[in-house]
Amino acid sequence: MINQAPAHLWLMIIALAVTAYLFKIFGLVILGSRQLPKVFDRCLGLIPAALLAALVAKDTFSIGQSLVIDARVAGFAVAVIAAWRRAPLIVVVVLAAGATALVRVI
Amino acid sequence: MKRFFAPLAEPAVRRVVIASLTLGGAVGIFALSFGVASVSAGASVWQTCALSLFVFTGASQFSAMSVVGAGGSLAAAFGGAALLAARNFVYGLALSSSAKSMAGSLPRRIFAAHFVIDETTALALAQESPRLRKIAFWTTGIGLFSFWNLGTLIGALAGSAIDPQKFGLDIAFPAAFIVMLLPHLRSKLGRQAAALGGVLCLISISFLPIGIPILIAACAVLVGLRK
User: Chain B: residue nearest A8 by CA?
Assistant: First the structure.
């Protein structure tokens, strides 16, 4: 995959940069200190919980459109334990990568 | 230069600056793993760096490249990443009452908006005086931006020099997502949203195009409607 990045990936990068900036500036500068309904605030605040959990599920248990259980599950388990014990990210990644690579070798 | 560093003589200011820089260092490590993960998902070094420079909101960048790497459409990758960026809107609102004292004139506020992310918001809002809030916002913002982009560049260069799959580095995505997810599991609503989001994604993965299940998972935020 490396160095064969499709040029239209640039389109997504630009769209995402503009969108992310608009969200930031909309709250800080344009809307100002107006109050939003509490429930709206709460739901927006829950987006990371819902989406990050979905991303973890997708990256651990699927390849493309099929559900699979492979070496990544070992990495996932190790990562959960390490993160739970408040290990810094670099340690979490190294331990998880090690576990995944080890299971692949076996 | 002497005048620039003079406020550091004050313990309160020193505490804020040290907190900002420590956080910056930790974030630099996150950026390293983003750099590796992004190039292994198919982006070039330039594209990876552009994401960190111009999108500058970590979870969205990770999410976008995770979907692209899995073979999802660019629209799906964009959708999930944009949803994750939406919380910066709430942060902007939270900061807006102190925006004038933090950033001053309108052009400076427009510039400051780029730095409205999780960490700057948390550190700025933790300060009691407007002056400390301003120092926290700018040191965290500029420090983080520097570390984030430096880390990304190093990670991207390293990632294109090795075979990430062979070193098990494809786990860098879920590992980063797990670390980012944990703080959200402290509240009951957060746990419910995460559980529902994960389940919705797994259920829909086999019959929806790649990346769309991530958008479906966003429905889980509706647990926030009750109460």
Answer: B74
Interface of A with B in 78-97 (CB under 8 A): 79-80, 83-84, 88-90, 92-93, 96-97
Nearest-neighbour CA in chain B from A90: distance (Å) = 6
Q: Which residues of B touch A2 (CB under 8 A)?
A: 39-40, 42, 159-160
Give the global pTM.
0.86
Domain boundaries of chain A, sorted by first residue? 36-105
Cβ contact, residue pair B207, A65, below 8 Å: yes
10 Å Cβ neighbour count for B163? Answer: 10
Residues 18-57 of A with CB under 8 A from B: 19-21, 23-29, 31-34, 36, 39, 41-57
**CB B71 to CB A64 under 8 A?**
yes
Check if the beta carbon of residue A73 is closer than 8 Å to that of residue A61. Answer: yes
Chain B's closest residue to A17, CA to CA, is: B55
The C-alpha R_g of chain A, in whole angstroms, comes to 19
Under 8 Å between Cβ of A27 and B93 = yes
Alpha-helix runs per DSSP H in B72-211: 74-85, 87-96, 99-103, 106-112, 118-125, 130-161, 172-181, 188-205
The closest of A67, A68, A74, A66 to A95, measured between CA atoms, is: A74
ipTM: 0.88
Structural domain boundaries of chain B? 2-185, 186-227
Per residue of chain B (227 residues), what is the pLDDT tens digit?
666 777 777 888 888 888 888 888 888 888 998 999 999 899 999 999 999 999 999 999 999 999 999 899 999 999 999 999 998 988 888 888 777 788 888 889 899 999 999 889 888 988 888 899 999 999 999 999 999 999 999 999 999 888 766 776 777 888 888 988 998 899 999 999 999 999 999 999 999 998 899 999 999 999 999 86
